[in-house]
């Protein structure tokens, strides 16, 4: 069964009398354990689409099912709980919590969102930090590590709850070429190890060439032939 | 909840200078309020104690209408005979009453054989008087204190003693007019000099009640007032109510009320000062509330504004709005708690220090009154609860704003 199913998906913003149709009748499906990318120029609607898939922004038309949940039926609290249990996020600016250590940042979703017991939580954090190669930096604060290391921590945080889906908004935009490559490789490894679906919004060709499925957006529409296997 | 506290503490430590400045502001407010309560409360308690324990007693009973004409010390409005028996019977059966003193108040001429002046006198039974107003002995600044005084002796108020150049063991003459208009004089030996204090009766001389009766040639026992001391001043309102209910309805042959009962508060103008002190305390508390409200609110609004992106992140990864709300409220709570704790500790140290240093002050003609500030646990708890409560209230709006924030908008914030 597909992890994500979008049918005639629409998103329209209203700013006074101005109406902006950000997504115009999009259909797509994404299978579990995919490594997919939404690509397109600025303003094409890729971030909007990612936000809708991430239950951060409800659609204004059509249907969107994520992990068998029709997300348009969720209220604010239910959406937060659904995100906490099903979706992990990786941000362009890493968005680690500055007052928490590397280990605590990874632990945060287990502690504040899912309320795991301490022992199980500690083990899971150790496992994830090991997997992303950050175990030796566990007690450092975000200000004490590099950009690439921050993004590794962000990947660990996104995966720590056993999320079925990880959404990454321009994850390599603030990284140098070498580091970006390492992060993409890491995410692919994580997908292979945990079976998690990774979806990116990007116009970074390094990410695009690594994506297995590419959805090209233009003016809120998916281009013909988009969504096919790339590799 | 522990994790929310841990995160809140970390966030407060992140902005050390701001946290410190806000805490200092709250601390200063708490110190100011507690010191004011302590010093003003001690001053009030001391003055009330002095007024009730060296002069008025806690309650007084008079014949109806006496108090309205007390300036002329009327002798035709004394309690006598069956009226006195009734009052004694009630007082003896009231367990809250510790002691009572029957007094005759009279005006007289005071002569040192060279000059004459007028004097207001309080004629008392020494044993009853010492039991009722035990601090009276402390007001004797010259002369012997034991037993207060004997028949034929007088305690002269300081002002008259100075003005008339009267010394201990001097003989003076008191001349008084009785209620029938006849004049009588009687010699007295100066037993002591009495310190004057503020308030009614604070500058009266004291003689033995038997001497007053012989000076006034009264037949039978009659008194102008009965001063009452209670075991606990806290019972005053209750005893006052019960005595008013018992004695108030009693009427004379002409169907007029016989007794009037007053608390010290009705008798002394200091009560108005005490009420002003209470009002000022309230005002200072309101100012503290304003300080805490504005400073915490300001800090929390800044905290939310500076952490919009962070709020977006934690909301995006699944933190429910209630938890975000709690996080900011706990930060405000901790700021208030921290400021209050430091404030209470500093206040207690200062109050202890003031007691060690023994600060003195003058009040009216009274010089060198020792200030012994104390603070009740209840006052400390009240101030602490107010500050912490206001801290939480002040955090509510910014916390609510944070919790309601749209994650996408917050994540886009730079």
Quick overview:
With 231 residues, chain A is an alpha/beta fold. Helices cover 35% and strands 26% of the residues of chain A.
Largest sheet of chain B: 6 strands, mixed, barrel
- Helical content class of chain B: 40-55%
The total beta strand count of chain A reads: 10
Helix content of chain A: 25-40%
User: Which percent range describes the beta-strand content of chain A?
Assistant: 25-35%
Q: Please name the fourth-level CATH homologous superfamily of chain A.
A: P-loop containing nucleotide triphosphate hydrolases
Write the CATH architecture name of chain A. 3-Layer(aba) Sandwich
Instruction: Characterize the overall form of chain A.
Output: globular
Q: How many structural domains can be distinguished in the coordinates of chain B?
A: 2
Kindly list the characteristics that best describe this protein.
heterodimer, A: 231 residues, alpha/beta, Rossmann fold, six-stranded mixed β-sheet, B: 414 residues, alpha+beta, 2 domains, 13 helices, elongated
Folded structure, characterized:
- The complex is a heterodimer of chains A (231) and B (414).
- Chain A is an alpha/beta fold.
- The mean pLDDT of chain A is 88.
- Chain A has one domain: Rossmann fold, CATH 3.40.50.300.
- Chain A contains 7 helices and 10 strands.
- Chain B is of the alpha+beta class.
- Chain B has 2 domains: 2-51 and 272-412, no CATH class; 65-257, no CATH class.
- Chain B has 13 helices and 14 strands.
- Chain B has helices at residues 2-14, 16-56, 81-93, 126-132, 158-163, 209-216, 236-247, 264-267, 270-306, 308-316, 321-357, 377-404, 407-412; strands spanning 59-63, 79-80, 97-111, 116-124, 140-143, 153-157, 171-177, 183-194, 205-208, 222-223, 225-230, 259-263, 360-363, 366-370.
- In chain B, strands 3-4-9-6-8-7 form a 6-stranded mixed barrel. In chain B, strands 2-10 form a two-stranded antiparallel ribbon.
- In chain B, β7 (171-177) and β8 (183-194) form a beta hairpin.
- In chain B, α1 (2-14) crosses α11.
- Chain B is elongated.
- The mean pLDDT of chain B is 88.
- The A-B interface holds A 51, 54, 56-57, 76-77, 80-85, 87-89, 91, 93, 95, 97-100, 108-109, 111-114, 157, 161 and B 3-4, 7, 10-11, 13-14, 309-310, 312-323, 407-408, 411.
